[in-house]
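Blinded run. Sample ID left blank on purpose so nobody reads anything into the name before looking at the predicted structure. Input follows.
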Amino acid sequence: MRAPRAVLLDLDGTVWEDDVVLPGVPEAVQRLRVAGIRIRFVTNITRLPARVLRERLVAQGIPATVEDVQTAPVSAAGWLRHAGVRRVALHVAEGTQEDFRGFTIDDAAPEAVVVGDLGRAWTFDRLNRAFLQVMGGAQLVALHRNRYWHTGGGLALDAGAFVAALEYAAGVEAVAVGKPSHAFFETAVREVGCEASEVVAVGDDVANDVGGAKRAGCRAVLVRSGKYRPGDEETLEARPDAVADSVVDLPGLFGV
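Blinded prediction complete.
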């Protein structure tokens, strides 16, 4: 496989599992960097800021800067800046609000309303406030559209349910900025300074990682770790360019 100029490397299930880096990954990432390949860590995580994820990478032997990490909130901020938006209303986890530095937080007359995972903080009043902001002309921006997620106590509603409620009530369609959206990969490609055809996305999710990357014009490698299940690579809608057992195989796959 022709070596790319940049790699978009998924985190959960690809670089680490249960926040523990998989064996050999730090060394593989270093080999790619020595070969001149740029690395950007990409994830749909919405409750942790890029700063914290960068600290976790460094603590486990993978040097990184905050700018090397793209979460769904970071993707949202990049999309908003590129669109020329300056005033935003944030309905996101408090910890990730730092990823929106440089924007004016304006609940009265925002240009965009950013909706993420608030858990129990989603009350009628909070949802109604977001509804009124969108009805006032603000663009609705969704960090992702996940319907629900697994918690220690079972299933729980995720941000997608509240995004759908706002779309239905306001009669609008949200711009999704997390994986597998085109906006997410477009932002990542722009930030690494390459053409999409020069970028390879690597991940364990055939829909979010492979499908999203392919639709954005990138190549994609599916790894057999994390949520991978046998047969995923045969999905007609999101067939990867290559399949590898883990990130450890990437230097050999790229010939570096």
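Unblinding after everyone has recorded impressions. Residues 6-43+181-254 form a domain with the Rossmann fold fold (CATH 3.40.50.1000).
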